[in-house]
Design goal:
The protein starts with a helix and ends in a 5-residue tail after the last helix. It contains ten helices and eight strands. With about 375 residues, the chain is an alpha+beta fold. Among the domains are: about 35 residues; about 55 residues; about 110 residues, no CATH class. Helix 7 runs antiparallel to helix 9 and helix 7 crosses helix 10. It has an eight-stranded mixed beta sheet.
Length: about 375
């Protein structure tokens, strides 16, 4: 029994060791195997074409993208299999299958000639003419007579309603006339007093409007002054924060940290820039002075990466012109990024600056 347990534990340990070894191998491959990239750029006679590709682990993973006069195409390959192309073809087959089903349904309905039946009974029996013939043969007239009697009764009831409404309206008019006569007999207010009361109401309404207007003006002024004061206080606090941050940045330790980070960043960019650039460029900025400045800027920065570019400025051309045919290639190693990051973090001045920016004591 103990031997079996030990044997099982040995098997589990071997499996764990194999898994750890596989993870370490994958990690080393990801860190040290380079990601190779290539690019092309062509411009001339109003057409622009560009393309780029990146691959890893002998094109185990390969990405490609092309741009040609406004159209962009891209593809992803895994183990040499075009993944995106397969997905697009599967989607097209699915859409074709769906459209094919709808077309077959439409063709079947067209062949059978089936349409929506006018009602359920005719759809079941399919005989519409027979019902009409039966109604003609029977010659029933009782239903029409009953309908005529019903309509006659309804006309009589409508006439009675009209008569009753007329009598009610006449009685209301008489009552209102009697009441108005009694009121005039008792004596109505004169026209002058009515005009005076209307003028008083108009004056009070006008005064109310003026008071409301001044109240609104006072409220708006108070809210505007509050907004101005809050904006001024927020601007002052932001200015104080910026000044304190600048003081921390221009400190001696902070300056050393910024310089260290900048130097490591330059080294990282140099390792990631293209290893080789070749091609030809012919350009004109329309102004000889500007054309010369562009040429000087190019020769200032061309030392960052090795290149075999042939740049030809055209000082006589009075229009903008750019003809180019450029090819480049390089590689990216992730271990370099990790290494430069560790160097930056282990620097004392950088750690002090980080603690200072977090508000901790520099001890």
């Amino acid at each position: 029994m103990p031997g079996i347990i030990i044997h099982i534990l040995l098997i589990i340990g071997k499996i764990l060791l194999i898994l750890v070894a596989v993870v370490l191998v994958l990690l080393l491959l990801i860190l040290f195997l380079p990601i190779v990239y290539r690019g092309t750029f062509t411009a001339g006679s109003g057409n622009i074409r560009a393309g780029g590709s990146a691959s890893w682990f002998f094109r185990l993973i390969y990405v490609k993208a092309d741009y040609d006069s406004g159209t962009l195409s891209y593809e992803l390959y895994l183990f040499g299999i075009p993944v995106l192309k397969l997905l697009r073809s599967r989607r097209k087959k699915h859409e074709a299958a769906v459209t094919g089903d709808t077309e077959t349904v439409g063709e079947a309905s067209a062949v059978t000639g089936d349409t929506e039946p006018p009602n359920a009974e005719t759809a079941l029996t399919g005989d519409t003419e027979s019902t009409e013939d039966e109604s003609v043969l029977t010659g029933d007239t009782e239903s029409t007579e009953d309908e005529s009697v019903l309509t006659g009764d309804t006309e009589l009831t409508e006439e009675k309603n009209i008569v009753t409404e007329d009598t009610e309206n006449a009685e209301e008019k008489e009552v209102s006339g009697d009441i108005s006569d009694d009121i005039w007999k008792d004596g109505m207010p004169e026209q002058d007093t009515a005009d005076q009361t209307e003028e008083m109401f108009e004056e009070e309404a006008f005064l109310d409007k003026i008071c409301r207007f001044f109240d609104r003006m006072e409220e708006s002024c108070a809210s505007f002054s509050g907004r101005i004061s809050s904006a001024v206080s927020s601007a002052a606090s932001a200015f104080n924060k910026i000044t304190s941050l600048l003081e921390k940045i221009f400190d001696e330790d902070t300056g050393e940290a910024v310089g260290h980070v900048f130097s490591q960043l330059i080294k990282l960019l140099r390792s990631y820039l293209p290893r080789r650039i070749e091609g030809t460029i012919e350009y004109s900025a329309g102004d000889p002075a500007l054309t010369g400045r562009i040429l000087g800027a190019y020769y200032t920065f061309c030392s960052l990466c090795p290149n075999d570019l042939i740049v030809t400025p055209d000082f006589e051309e009075e229009k903008l012109k750019a003809d180019a045919d450029i090819r480049l290639r390089g590689h990216i190693i992730l271990f370099v990024l990790v290494y430069r990051g560790v160097i930056v973090i282990l620097n004392r001045s950088v750690r002090r600056t980080i603690r200072m920016l977090r508000g901790k004591n520099d001890e």
